[in-house]
Amino acid sequence: MRSAAAAVCLLGALAFQDPPPPPGPTFEEFLAGVRAEALKRGISEATLDRALTRLQPEPVVVARDRAQPEVTQSLEDYVQQRLSPKTVATAREMAARHAAVLAHVERAYGVQPALMVAIWGLESNFGAFTGSYPTIAALATLAFDGRRPIFRSELFAALTIVDQRQMDPAALKGSWAGAMGQPQFMPSSFLRHAIDFDGDQVVDIWSSHADVFGSMANYLRAAGWREGERWGREVAVSRAVMAKVDRAVAMRTSGCRAMRELTVARPLDEWHDLGITLRGGGRLPVSSMPASLVRGRTRTFLVYRNYEAILQYNCSNSYAVSVGVLSDQIGP
């Protein structure tokens, strides 16, 4: 039996413990706050009634957010899994099938067809799968979860799309993260970069290939894409050379996580002087082109300014390297 003295000590200890934190808002209270802010942003009450009434959270999207392969897989495993021989063959077939519209988009925006097809393939399996999650519910769930504040702003962007296009909210579907259409645009990207490239007065990134490719190219150009430049190339780096690189070249300290995994940019000539060569042998091009190093476990790449535009599309080095390698395998 516990002694009276021990009981008194226990009660005393409990008295000095911090009180438990107050419970957070319920999902319904969270939605009430969203509604109030959305009304201030000019979104109509009718749209909010259609979009938020009886809305329920989607718990599976929270689990998906915590297990993204861009984070959990190594660069090498990610590339190998996504760039199967079947994917490469399909990419080449799609590049040939849509050559005319891709060439038209390239003339307008300066983005190579192979690069657009590579992004299209990785984002939605060449348009075959654009997602089945209800966009409003997915974004509301992630915004309520609160781990990443960006989802709250994306929720308001999705509500704006529904309001402007007078859409049925139930028809707006995409990935677990709220990405939509064949190019998998987040709602804010749709509002800023989706275009009517085929001229039919409708912005349709779900079924119009012209709008899909045109919108992707418009996004990349806004992100700083430079016509005629490469994305990067695979290089060979020995342990001794990597040790020299570690001493001579700093890592970046700003930007998203993937940007901070890159070295600062140095001219290709300097990388050559450090001892880096092309994979398979050969000298790096004689150039002052700025390039950064991105490392996997067994593969290393020198990446250029256009690579950073790909990171603006999806800030993951595994993703951006996969896009670049696939585009090279598709060909010019």
What keywords describe this structure?
332 residues; alpha+beta; five-stranded antiparallel β-sheet; two-stranded antiparallel ribbon; 18 helices; globular
Fold and architecture overview:
The chain is built from 18 helices and seven strands. It has 332 residues and is an alpha+beta fold. Among the domains are: 80 residues, no CATH class; 72 residues, no CATH class. The strands form two sheets. It has a five-stranded antiparallel β-sheet, sandwiched between helices. A two-stranded antiparallel sheet has the order 1-2. Helix 8 runs parallel beside helix 13, helix 12 packs across helix 13 and helix 13 packs across helix 17. The longest helix has 16 residues. About 4% of the residues have low confidence.
Beta-strand content bin: 5-15%
Helix content: 40-55%
Report the average pLDDT across residues: 90
Spans of at least 5 consecutive residues with low confidence = 4-16
Tell me the Rg in angstroms. Answer: 24 Å
Individual helix count:
18
Distance between the termini: 82 Å
Counting helices, strands and paired strands, the structural category is alpha+beta
How many strand segments? 7
List the secondary-structure elements in sequence, H or E. HHHHHHHHHEHHEHHEHHEHEEEHH
Strand order of the largest sheet: 4-6-7-3-5
Please tell me what the overall shape is. Answer: globular
Question: What does the main sheet amount to?
Answer: 5 strands, antiparallel
Topology:
Layout: H1 4-15, H2 27-40, H3 45-52, H4 59-65, H5 69-72, H6 75-82, H7 85-97, H8 99-109, H9 113-124, E1 133-134, H10 135-145, H11 150-165, E2 173-174, H12 187-193, H13 209-222, E3 232-236, H14 239-248, H15 257-260, E4 266-267, H16 268-274, E5 277-278, E6 290-295, E7 300-303, H17 305-313, H18 317-330
Helix pairs in contact: 4-10, 6-18, 7-9, 8-13, 9-18, 10-11, 11-12, 12-13, 13-17
